[in-house]
Amino acid sequence: MKRHLVFLAILLFIFSGSLCFAQTNQPVKEDFKPATSNQPGKEYPMVNSEGRVRVSILAPVAQKVQLDISAVKYDLIKDENGVWTGESEPQDEGFHYYQLWIDGAAVPDPNSLYFYGASRWGSGIEIPAHDQEFYELKDVPHGQISEQLYFSKSNNGMRRCFVYTPPDYNKDTEKRYPVLYLQHGGGEDETGWPNQGRTNLIMDNLIADGKAKPFIIVMDNGSWRMPGQDRPPRPGDRSAGTWPPAGWADGFKKTMIEDIIPMIDENYRTIADQQHRGMAGLSMGGMQTRVITLANPKVFSYVGLFSGGSITMDDINNSPNFKEKVKLVFVSYGSRELENGKTRFGGNPEADTEALKKIGINTHYYVSPLTAHEWQSWRRSLHKFAQLLFKD
Amino acid sequence: MKRHLVFLAILLFIFSGSLCFAQTNQPVKEDFKPATSNQPGKEYPMVNSEGRVRVSILAPVAQKVQLDISAVKYDLIKDENGVWTGESEPQDEGFHYYQLWIDGAAVPDPNSLYFYGASRWGSGIEIPAHDQEFYELKDVPHGQISEQLYFSKSNNGMRRCFVYTPPDYNKDTEKRYPVLYLQHGGGEDETGWPNQGRTNLIMDNLIADGKAKPFIIVMDNGSWRMPGQDRPPRPGDRSAGTWPPAGWADGFKKTMIEDIIPMIDENYRTIADQQHRGMAGLSMGGMQTRVITLANPKVFSYVGLFSGGSITMDDINNSPNFKEKVKLVFVSYGSRELENGKTRFGGNPEADTEALKKIGINTHYYVSPLTAHEWQSWRRSLHKFAQLLFKD
Fold this sequence. Notes:
The structure is a homodimer. By secondary structure, the first copy, chain A, is of the alpha+beta class. The first copy, chain A, has two domains: about 30-130, Immunoglobulin-like, CATH 2.60.40.10; about 135-385, Alpha/Beta hydrolase fold, catalytic domain (Rossmann fold). Helix content of chain A is about 25%, strand content about 25%. Chain A has helices at about 1-25, 200-210, 250-265, 285-295, 315-320, 320-325, 350-360, 375-385, and strands at about 35, 45, 55-60, 65-70, 70-75, 75-80, 85, 95-100, 105, 115, 120-125, 145-150, 155-165, 180-185, 215-220, 275-280, 300-305, 330-335, 340, 340-345, 365-370. In chain A, helix 2 (about 200-210) packs parallel to helix 8 (about 375-385). At the A-B interface, strand 8, strand 9, strand 11 and strand 12 of A face strand 8, strand 9, strand 11 and strand 12 of B.
């Protein structure tokens, strides 16, 4: 047994050595271009055709400057003018949060646009994707994203959501529309789907191509804190007991049912019934969607869980009316979140999907190729999911 | 004469000495509170009752960290944990851009919200104001701010504006509204009035109090570059010849008249005539408003110039129809922008106002107390101006 362990250690050592070798000796392709997520007129950060991110910042007195992206820190190199430059390993296609470290201070890159994620406004970058056409800004009819402020009784305070209305909403003021309630993940907020998610561009392009019915999308703030903690729940919290803890989604469920839906039905031209209402979310928002729709099958017809669990036969058996009332269950993950079909949350989404199909529930399962627990998986999920909604 | 100069020099020396004395020895009031413009959950930056800004950042390896606000850099002091902290002199009431310097790198404060100004997304801070009630978020009926994407023929590309619609816009889908076109300043963009300007809150509060008629506000991007330069015009450019240079506002004038107004009239329930259309702007946006409305008195009835010049008798004489067609001219400045009634641009807004009044033009002049060329002057200007609009 000991011999095996030694052998394994040697193998790991060789493997890690070869990884280092690959990292340091592989030539970096010099076809960098400014990222589309840069501030106006900024040359850096840049991205090359391999998906490497190159940043650059003037910091003449600094001793150490690093690029911090996808949980890896890369040392930058200083030139004779005090400008630090360097690049990362290739990144997945799509959107990534990142930051700079300057002599021990974690700061946003002054050249990038800023996004709310990881519980802070900070830098983000777009890596060009082979399929980016579906979320690009084009000369097609555009809907609006509106900021909606409202008083919430259940929170006894003002709240904010963003509402996407489709291109013809302002033109035909008689027409009424179905509604999708679409939630962000942990450490994000109501700006996630409008900014990182590109919700409006995905929908405008789908509607222009005749691939999706026009519908309203409501993006609210589902942030929720672990009792006694100042952050949303994380998978690691499981070690503290059952996870998610019992009743964890109740606060947002109350807000959704008692405040958000009535406010939207009062202020927008919705078709205010179960057949024309859906809910979806990513990660924490998917877990909220699961809990809220299982508890309210008479409120929602369409259910989307993006990297946020799946619905099991146990769930169905414990949710009266779900099987009869719900028209569609959509479950998705990024391929890098899965190992032998299982997720890091322990579920088996494909097996769950097959079980639901067998009892006659209209269930769809989608895996985003070569992406992880990140926005490209969720953009693609929305793109697939939206084409299935409100069609009958 | 020489004796007088020596005397003056001595006086100045004493005065500057006493200023230094006051700065270093005046005790800082220890009643700092987190700024309302902080990111969620962030303790710093803080502001005290004198309007001093205190920032704090962990930068254990840094040698020098500074707070840079209102064109002054303040050294921070490092504690035993590597946390740098320090504060500024008292700031004017209202909103200010700022940044941090870490070992020679200019970066946003990771704790603040970010705003577009000074040609970059960066940190901003709210200093509590004695009159802040007029732009506070309250439980009153709220309008929406919508992001509107559109194709512009005159620019041959996609553009973006934000549109404020009043609280009852979505409720009564028959009603039509007047429109104000409201422009930002140099180095800012279409996000300035929605974010720093708090346009929606100012309007929602005024409408709730019955002090303003409900109207639509369109906030577009008037950015314009000096030929051959990569930045908007600045007063210093006068040294290069006449300023603003001839024809400098023509690009945005064309976009406004040929693209923006028709697009808004097509997509929103406007009253699409001269009597129900106004234009206003701050600084560069005021200068654009002046040029565009003088050239188009048959398009606009209401004119607002905030820290952006005034309309002279020469202007009136050179603009056929202006006197007959325009219902209101509103001119404003921050008190700190004026010296003996004159502005740093050389104009005399009060004298110009009086001259226009004498020939029967409905002209208003407003000076924002104890503010400079900054957002608090412009929030107050909008607050005054909005109460005068579309009332007959």
